[in-house]
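Risk register update: the risk of archive-format incompatibility is retired. Evidence:
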Amino acid sequence: MFRKIFLIIFILFFCNQSYAKKFSVKEGDILENEVSFGKNKFPLPPGKFKVAISKKWLDFRNLLLIQTDEDTGVIKWKIKLMATGSTDEKNSSWVPSKMCDEKDNYYLKANKGKPRFSCWSVSHSTSDQEDVVRLSISNNYFSFNQTMNHKIKADQSILSKSKNYETANNLNSPSMFVVSRHHYGNKSKLYESEYYYNPELDGIPKSKNYDWSSSEFHVSNINNFPEHEEFLKKFVGISANLVDRFNKLNNVKGSLSLNPEENLIKISANVENNNTKKKQSSNEKKDIINQIKGLKELLDAGAITQDEFEKAKKKILN
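Archived output:
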């Protein structure tokens, strides 16, 4: 019995040390483009990110990255990443988290298979402790028993330490973040990414309701706040880009990819349509200006009367 326990501890220690060698990110590092967790990678939005917190327990690796706005100094992005290392227990697999079933997300797609699954949501998040607890519960999985209990504690710890880090570094958070979450389970391996973005930097009014369920961004209230809803639609496109990049970096294919291309195409089409309308509108304005200029030249040359000029101008404008 003692030998068996010693062997398990030795294997966990060896796997952990092996994974640590592949993962060299440290607190204070500046990262761009992507983060490597051994062979697996997570994409990053544009710009530079500082590693605020790096935590490790057995074969779990947790990171918290922060990007501040250059003009205001407030938090722009806050990113929480988690991945398992070389865990490869036979006949063991993670089961989708409760997040995969939450009906009060603004956007949700899930493929809840076994031994593989993937879930992707877009919603909002407060900065207070109540939301920290809510997230840790919704991210709960039903597998690996005691190991899972430690993972939940690690989730709560890194989110709580985030507030301490912000206070110590005089960083200001918005009253409400919008957040993209993507969870991917592949047998005994698990990957989580949570991208929190500050919508106030895009001109969205500061939230008047600080409670999560009564927020302007909540799915039950969003219809009353068209500006917030329009922003969330755009954020789904941004989120789709991150999921798409994760799939390509980690060779995730088929239904497990959750087809983020659908949202990328919509965003692209909207941009294209808007640009086309803008070009048409711009050309029409130029044509009107040129016609009126031509009439003015005729008037100045005495070729037409003032009355004829006014009638012709009115016809063009109509």
